[in-house]
Protein backbone atom coordinates (compact mmCIF):
# COMPACT_ATOMS: atom_id res chain seq x y z
CA UNK A 1 0.00 0.00 0.00
CA UNK A 2 1.06 3.60 -0.51
CA UNK A 3 2.18 4.94 2.88
CA UNK A 4 3.73 8.04 4.39
CA UNK A 5 6.60 8.17 6.83
CA UNK A 6 8.40 10.91 8.75
CA UNK A 7 12.12 11.30 8.08
CA UNK A 8 14.57 13.51 9.97
CA UNK A 9 18.10 14.24 8.80
CA UNK A 10 19.78 14.79 12.19
CA UNK A 11 22.24 17.58 13.12
CA UNK A 12 25.32 15.43 12.41
CA UNK A 13 24.31 14.70 8.81
CA UNK A 14 23.18 18.30 8.20
CA UNK A 15 26.63 19.44 9.43
CA UNK A 16 28.30 16.92 7.08
CA UNK A 17 26.58 18.57 4.10
CA UNK A 18 24.89 15.38 2.91
CA UNK A 19 21.23 16.51 2.78
CA UNK A 20 21.18 16.22 -1.01
CA UNK A 21 22.95 12.87 -1.01
CA UNK A 22 20.35 11.48 1.40
CA UNK A 23 17.42 13.03 -0.54
CA UNK A 24 18.83 11.40 -3.67
CA UNK A 25 18.72 7.98 -2.00
CA UNK A 26 15.07 8.54 -1.08
CA UNK A 27 14.16 9.51 -4.64
CA UNK A 28 16.11 6.65 -6.26
CA UNK A 29 14.22 4.17 -4.05
CA UNK A 30 10.86 5.53 -5.23
CA UNK A 31 10.06 7.66 -2.16
CA UNK A 32 8.61 11.09 -2.96
CA UNK A 33 9.38 14.09 -0.74
CA UNK A 34 5.90 15.59 -0.21
CA UNK A 35 6.81 18.04 2.60
CA UNK A 36 10.14 19.38 3.82
CA UNK A 37 11.51 21.98 6.22
CA UNK A 38 14.71 22.87 8.06
CA UNK A 39 14.18 23.44 11.76
CA UNK A 40 16.29 23.93 14.88
CA UNK A 41 14.35 22.09 17.59
CA UNK A 42 13.93 23.59 21.04
CA UNK A 43 14.53 21.29 24.02
CA UNK A 44 10.78 21.16 24.64
CA UNK A 45 10.06 20.22 21.01
CA UNK A 46 12.69 17.46 21.02
CA UNK A 47 11.41 16.08 24.34
CA UNK A 48 7.88 16.04 22.95
CA UNK A 49 8.92 14.31 19.76
CA UNK A 50 10.79 11.58 21.66
CA UNK A 51 8.27 11.34 24.55
CA UNK A 52 7.99 7.54 24.09
CA UNK A 53 11.67 7.27 25.10
CA UNK A 54 11.33 9.46 28.20
CA UNK A 55 12.10 6.63 30.64
CA UNK A 56 15.11 5.35 28.69
CA UNK A 57 18.65 5.96 29.99
CA UNK A 58 19.67 7.58 26.69
CA UNK A 59 16.82 10.13 26.68
CA UNK A 60 18.79 13.19 27.87
CA UNK A 61 21.74 12.55 25.54
CA UNK A 62 19.33 11.99 22.66
CA UNK A 63 17.51 15.27 23.29
CA UNK A 64 20.75 17.24 23.75
CA UNK A 65 22.09 15.86 20.49
CA UNK A 66 18.88 16.58 18.56
CA UNK A 67 18.97 20.26 19.58
CA UNK A 68 22.71 20.69 18.84
CA UNK A 69 21.98 22.09 15.36
CA UNK A 70 19.28 22.33 12.70
CA UNK A 71 17.64 19.23 11.27
CA UNK A 72 15.84 18.61 7.97
CA UNK A 73 12.38 17.14 8.47
CA UNK A 74 10.46 15.58 5.60
CA UNK A 75 7.43 13.49 4.79
CA UNK A 76 8.13 10.66 2.36
CA UNK A 77 5.40 8.93 0.40
CA UNK A 78 5.49 5.70 -1.57
CA UNK A 79 4.71 2.01 -1.71
CA UNK A 80 5.66 0.49 1.67
CA UNK A 81 7.26 3.80 2.66
CA UNK A 82 7.82 2.96 6.34
CA UNK A 83 9.79 -0.25 5.71
CA UNK A 84 11.46 1.04 2.54
CA UNK A 85 12.77 4.05 4.47
CA UNK A 86 13.94 1.90 7.40
CA UNK A 87 15.87 -0.33 5.01
CA UNK A 88 17.54 2.71 3.43
CA UNK A 89 18.53 3.97 6.91
CA UNK A 90 19.97 0.66 8.21
CA UNK A 91 20.23 -0.40 11.86
CA UNK A 92 19.93 2.23 14.63
CA UNK A 93 23.50 1.46 15.73
CA UNK A 94 25.74 2.31 12.75
CA UNK A 95 28.16 -0.45 13.78
CA UNK A 96 25.35 -2.92 12.98
CA UNK A 97 24.09 -1.19 9.83
CA UNK A 98 24.41 -3.02 6.50
CA UNK A 99 26.99 -1.60 4.08
CA UNK A 100 25.44 0.88 1.67
CA UNK A 101 22.80 2.10 4.13
CA UNK A 102 22.60 5.76 5.18
CA UNK A 103 23.76 5.02 8.72
CA UNK A 104 26.64 2.80 7.58
CA UNK A 105 27.79 5.57 5.24
CA UNK A 106 27.19 8.72 7.33
CA UNK A 107 26.59 7.89 11.02
CA UNK A 108 29.25 8.04 13.74
CA UNK A 109 27.49 6.61 16.82
CA UNK A 110 24.11 5.40 18.08
CA UNK A 111 23.23 9.00 19.05
CA UNK A 112 24.80 10.76 16.07
CA UNK A 113 23.17 8.27 13.72
CA UNK A 114 22.37 10.63 10.83
CA UNK A 115 18.66 9.94 10.38
CA UNK A 116 15.39 9.10 12.07
CA UNK A 117 12.44 7.28 10.52
CA UNK A 118 9.01 6.33 11.83
CA UNK A 119 8.82 2.70 12.94
CA UNK A 120 5.20 2.00 11.87
CA UNK A 121 2.37 3.61 9.91
CA UNK A 122 0.54 4.58 13.12
CA UNK A 123 3.64 6.26 14.57
CA UNK A 124 4.22 7.97 11.23
CA UNK A 125 0.81 9.66 11.38
CA UNK A 126 1.58 11.07 14.85
CA UNK A 127 5.12 12.15 13.91
CA UNK A 128 4.00 13.79 10.65
CA UNK A 129 1.30 15.76 12.48
CA UNK A 130 3.93 16.93 15.01
CA UNK A 131 5.79 18.84 12.28
CA UNK A 132 3.40 19.50 9.40
CA UNK A 133 -0.19 20.76 9.18
CA UNK A 134 -2.17 18.89 6.51
CA UNK A 135 -2.15 21.97 4.25
CA UNK A 136 1.69 21.87 4.10
CA UNK A 137 1.80 18.33 2.68
CA UNK A 138 1.81 18.12 -1.10
CA UNK A 139 0.85 14.57 -2.07
CA UNK A 140 1.40 13.92 -5.77
P1 LIG B 1 15.89 7.32 16.44
O1 LIG B 1 15.40 6.47 15.34
O2 LIG B 1 15.92 8.78 16.20
O3 LIG B 1 15.02 7.03 17.75
C1 LIG B 1 15.53 7.19 19.05
C2 LIG B 1 17.00 7.43 19.07
O4 LIG B 1 17.64 7.21 20.31
C3 LIG B 1 17.71 6.50 18.12
O5 LIG B 1 17.41 6.86 16.80
C4 LIG B 1 19.16 6.68 18.55
O6 LIG B 1 19.79 7.77 17.90
C5 LIG B 1 19.03 7.04 20.04
N1 LIG B 1 19.57 5.99 20.91
C6 LIG B 1 20.61 6.13 21.75
N2 LIG B 1 20.85 5.00 22.42
C7 LIG B 1 19.93 4.10 22.00
C8 LIG B 1 19.65 2.73 22.32
N3 LIG B 1 20.37 2.06 23.21
N4 LIG B 1 18.63 2.13 21.67
C9 LIG B 1 17.87 2.80 20.78
N5 LIG B 1 18.08 4.09 20.44
C10 LIG B 1 19.11 4.73 21.03
Outline the structure in words.
By secondary structure, the chain is of the alpha+beta class. It is built from seven helices and four strands, in the order E-H-H-E-H-H-E-H-H-E-H. The chain has helices spanning 11-15, 19-28, 43-49, 59-66, 81-89, 102-106, 121-131, and strands at 2-9, 32-39, 71-79, 115-117. The chain has a four-stranded antiparallel β-sheet. Bound molecules: adenosine-3',5'-cyclic-monophosphate (CMP). Adenosine-3',5'-cyclic-monophosphate binds at residues 53, 58, 62, 92, 110-111, 113, 116.
Give short descriptive properties of this protein.
7 helices, globular, 140 residues, single chain, binds adenosine-3',5'-cyclic-monophosphate, 20% strand, alpha+beta
Sum this structure up briefly.
With 140 residues, the chain is of the alpha+beta class.
Amino acid sequence: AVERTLSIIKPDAVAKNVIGEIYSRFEKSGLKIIASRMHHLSRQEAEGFYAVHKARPFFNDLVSFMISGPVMVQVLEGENAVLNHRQLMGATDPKKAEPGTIRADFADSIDANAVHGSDAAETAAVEIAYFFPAMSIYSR
